[in-house]
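ok, trying the design again with the full structure, not the truncated one.
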């Protein structure tokens, strides 16, 4: 299957990265796929954007100034596979920024996610984040201690005019709360937030994120509020739409340690749980809606009717606001589809109940009809038996036999009909057939005493005849 192929590829790449050295790193906020600050996300819907790109700066102190900066690219290449690239210039981790000669290395990160399962408004994805290559002294080295294997489940709910997305999952590496050991330019050694060396072994941790989409500035795409726990601390952020395509991103990393902001300037090294202020600019490039053969564009606004058969639709002719509205309409269509499915299910149950009632009514009607047929046959049978009795007493034995035969055809289980036919055969001199019919009558009605007496008398009469001879 396609998603198994994608997942196998991204896990294979990550497993190949099994060696490298430890050094300081900044998980730059907003640079991972999906738009959250540091946690991964998933969605049941395909992204309405062809790709997202931007730059971000994470400031750890203002005087002296110390920050990490980077650029990123994120795209959903298929309906289920997402790829992100980031290039980061890390922050100075020295204990004295004023005398530091630290030259920040360039880090290139690769981030991959594969959506495996969706149900209603729930989705689940697996991925690998932070496959980081660091360029130092004109060569690239791999940092396997930063690799985060992850699984994330999402829930997307509409609450009035607001949309609340929840992301929860598990991960290794930095998502598990572990950080690599950090060294400053003088060679001094510091540890992560836990105060212990967490680089040995692989740990598994949990993370959670919340994205609230508000109707504020809805004409530009809406204001987004973010809150998350990334395995190390709490991050808060806001995404402010400048236009329908550009958004300003502002946030606080390790907001729980905000009172310690800028303490690195007090001759302390930069710790992994150091608070920071994040600011960045994001660009979203919407997808072009596919046009039918006649170049007729379906949209909510005015239609574009002046496009000739040989013309191409330019991106500038497509309002990106309509793309955002179309994305919201897709969400509404999915909700309506679920409601329609539930209604269809109820209708199917009602139809099944009606069908059962019809079956019961048909069975009762068939039983009633069968009873009526039996009654009708019985009436005709008795009529033929009565006629045969009249013919019998009139000694018209052939006509009497015909009447009995018709009675037996109508009701083959009537003992009196076989008894009557036996008497007629006896009168016709055919004792053998008479005996057969009397026995049939006695078999159908074992308490038919008249027939039993006739057979007994016939047997005794035969015995006397044999003894006389």
């Amino acid at each position: 299957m396609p998603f198994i192929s994608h997942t196998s590829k991204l896990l294979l790449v990550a497993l190949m990265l099994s060696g490298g050295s430890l050094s300081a790193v900044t998980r730059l906020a907003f640079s991972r796929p999906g738009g959250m600050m540091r946690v991964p996300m998933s969605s049941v819907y395909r992204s309405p954007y062809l790709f997202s790109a931007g730059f971000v700066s994470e400031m750890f102190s203002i005087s002296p100034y110390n920050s990490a900066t980077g650029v990123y690219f994120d795209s959903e290449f298929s309906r289920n596979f997402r790829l992100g690239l980031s290039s980061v210039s890390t922050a100075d981790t020295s204990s004295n920024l004023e005398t530091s000669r630290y030259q920040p290395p360039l880090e290139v990160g690769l981030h991959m996610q594969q959506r495996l399962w969706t149900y209603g408004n729930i989705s689940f994805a697996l991925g690998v984040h932070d496959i980081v290559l660091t360029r130092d002294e004109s060569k690239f080295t791999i940092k396997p201690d930063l690799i985060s294997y992850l699984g994330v489940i999402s829930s997307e709910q509409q609450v009035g005019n607001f949309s609340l997305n929840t992301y929860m999952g598990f991960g290794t590496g930095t998502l598990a709360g572990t950080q690599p050991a950090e060294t400053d330019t003088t060679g001094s050694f510091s540890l992560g937030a836990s105060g212990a060396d967490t680089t040995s072994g692989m740990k598994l941790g949990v993370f959670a994120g919340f994205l609230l989409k508000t109707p504020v500035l809805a004409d530009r795409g809406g204001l987004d509020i973010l809150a998350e726990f990334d395995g190390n601390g709490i991050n808060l952020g806001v995404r402010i739409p400048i236009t329908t395509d550009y958004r300003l991103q502002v946030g606080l990393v390790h907001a729980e340690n905000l009172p310690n902001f800028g303490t690195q300037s007090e001759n302390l090294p930069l710790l992994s749980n150091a608070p920071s202020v994040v600011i960045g600019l994001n660009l979203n490039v919407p997808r072009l809606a596919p046009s039918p053969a006649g170049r007729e564009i379906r949209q909510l606004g005015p239609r574009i009717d002046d496009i000739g058969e040989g013309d191409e639709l330019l991106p500038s002719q497509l309002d990106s606001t309509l793309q955002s509205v179309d994305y919201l309409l897709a969400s509404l269509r999915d909700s309506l589809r679920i409601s329609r499915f539930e209604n269809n299910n109820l209708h199917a149950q009602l139809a099944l109940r009606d069908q059962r009632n019809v079956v019961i009514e048909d069975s009762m009607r068939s039983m009633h009809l069968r009873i009526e047929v039996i009654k009708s046959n019985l009436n005709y049978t008795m009529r033929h038996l009565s006629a045969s009795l009249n013919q019998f007493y009139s000694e018209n034995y052939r006509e009497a036999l015909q009447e009995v035969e018709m009675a037996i055809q109508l009701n083959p289980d009537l003992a009196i009909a076989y008894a009557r036919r036996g008497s007629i055969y006896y009168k016709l001199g055919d004792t053998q057939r008479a005996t057969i019919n009397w026995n049939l009558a006695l078999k159908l009605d074992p308490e038919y005493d008249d027939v039993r007496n006739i057979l007994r008398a016939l047997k005794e009469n035969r015995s006397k005849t044999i003894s006389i001879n």
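Keeping the full-length input from now on. The domain at 356-468 is CATH 1.25.40.10 (Serine Threonine Protein Phosphatase 5, Tetratricopeptide repeat).
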